Amino acid sequence: MHEGHSKPLFQEDAYRQSCVAQIVAVTATGVVLDQTVFYPLGGGQPGDTGTLTQADGSVLTVVDTRKGEDGAIVHQLVEGSEPPTAGSVVTASIDWPRRYRHMRMHTCMHLLGSLIPEPVTGGNVGAEKSRLDFNLPESPDKHELTTQLNALIEADHPVSTRWISDAELDANPELVRTMSVSPPRGAGRIRLLQIGNVDLQPCGGTHVRSTGEIGTAVVSKIENKGKQNRRFHLQLPD
Question: What is the pTM of this model?
Answer without folding.
Answer: 0.91
